[in-house]
Amino acid sequence: MLSKLKLSILIGSFLVLAALPFIAEAVDEPFYIDLMARVMIFSIAAMSLDFILGYGAMISFGHALYIGLGTYAVGILAFYEVTNGWLQLLVCIVGTAFISFILGLISLRTSGIYFIMITFALAQMFYFLGISLEEFGGDDGLPIDERSVFFEGLDMYDPWTMYYLILGTLTVTTFALWRIINSRFGMVVRGSHSNDDRMQAIGFPTFKYRLAAFVIAGVVCGLAGFLLGNLTEFLTPEYMHWFRSGELMIMVMVGGMGTLFGPLYGAFAYIMMEDFLSQFTEYWQFYFGPLLILLVLFAKQGLWGMLPGKEDMSDE
Amino acid sequence: MRRSPFSICSARNDNQLDKARAGHGDLRMTLLLFVEQFLNGMQFGVFLFLISAGLTLVLGIMNVVNLAHGSLYMLGAYFASTFFGLTGSLIVALVLMIPVMLVVGMVIELVVLRTMYERDHMDQVLATFGLILFFNELVRLIWGVDAQPLTLPVWLSGNVEILPDAPYPVYRLVVIGVGMAVAAGLFWMITKTRMGMLIRAGASNRPMVGALGVNIRFLYTMVFGLGAVFAGLAGLMAAPLQSVESGMGEEMLIFAFVVIVIGGIGSIRGALVASIVIGIFETVGRSILPFLMLEIVDSETAQTAGPALASMLVYILMAVILFFKPQGLFPARTG
Description:
Structural class of chain A: mainly alpha
Oligomer: heterodimer
Mean pLDDT of chain B: 83
Radius of gyration of chain A: 19 Å
Distance between the termini of chain B: 38 Å
CATH class of chain A: Mainly Alpha
CATH architecture of chain A: Orthogonal Bundle
Number of domains of chain A: 1
Strand order of the largest sheet of chain B: 1-2
Strand order of the largest sheet of chain A: 1-2
Low-confidence stretches of chain B: 1-14
Largest sheet of chain A: 2 strands, antiparallel
């Protein structure tokens, strides 16, 4: 369970997020609404990665694939003039569930380094597939002509509506993942992280549990992609590139691996850092690379992990 | 459409393919096309082997995921183009590149990798990801954003007739020859020399080798340097075929991962077999597949689905092999 300090920081953060559009409007910087919308989308994606990485020890190095799949679900249907949001959402969920199921079936047969390399290669396969699909823009990507249409009166083009829709999704997914982690199912996944052989010995078919967790993470990340496609109105294989998967891992690490709420702050910190560094130099990665190595060496516990109070993982 | 990493050969392929299509049913053209594609595949396989040999040794012996191995390939290509530009000789560039890459590899091992041995794989992935970011920007800072030129010297730029009336570039045959020689040398080193024995021993039982008084840390540094030289050699040989630019190593890294996964971590033999298989599968598949699909489906479907399927072919092969052999074809960790 969370310590009082962590709980108040968490509630405080969500309150700030809820108030942010008013503040941004008051100081006449509507740009921040868009920026924070992006941060929240990547928070969802990073959280879903942490769900399998931090709690299930499945070091997936291809998680950005599901962001890409989410944007393709919106983009391809919009391309064929199917803009019904509910239908797009259904396709997004079923599609990401199906693909993560198949990929999980292949990659979860392995572990350790093999698992990292296989998730990496399989995600790249979809990246190259996206590039070879000339119809949907290939390498260059494709503008999405119309955002999803859910119902009369929900104007997806209104930045405030979009913002609160994303905030709502973030809140719901955070709560849902929190419940899952602390459920019996979550305990089994975490148990197989600590000692898979022992879990099997006491009778749990851990492969099925891990596969289910892998699929849940894929679908949640697909939702992030669904929102990203609507926000940026653009579809590109670039979202699936392994570089993006690496970024998601950085967000998880910076926030605190194995702490569900850490990646929310990790995504914020990473996007802000990128924004900040690239103001000074075009070659910001030249400085960020060594900084990342130092972070891995000396700040492994991440932002959330630095807070006093019990670790989320250690309440066994 | 993005072509395979060795786009020059793709251009030739398309040309050949058109010829073959025109003379549909012409057995000789089809045979020629196949032989040429086979050689191209061998050559691509040689590059893959040079890159994955070092990577698989590092993985097998030190149990470290090194994403930055592709950066070594890139650095090799940059050094080659610079040394070639300064001296005008590919041989001198090669001789200069080897010690430089050895030192670069050893420095990377001493400064970054050494701190990562006791860490988990997640840390290794992130730290070496940091190295990639660093090196990709470093080469842009030093050499600029434009691709570096390296044109072949005259004695390498001709063609030979491999079959009557079928010219094939000399350079590509040289690449295949050099790769095979390196593979043979590496096998000799691993199986016959003292260092190779220590490498094999280190792969199967690290603490024991250390306990027997071998300086295991120095061995690691040497192996890493050796891997850097192989990757650099691949970069040097690829430089005239491919544009030398920032980020060129990543595409090869992905293929190298596929090779290692298929071949089995730590196995040089597995790396060689898997490299050649992947090289031929990728090259022949890309050129033959759209052709084969024409026979089965109508041309419009073949034109759309052909390239898409071809780009996934290698990964599908990997998935199939893993389904039957999750530890790769040569699961032994002993080379």
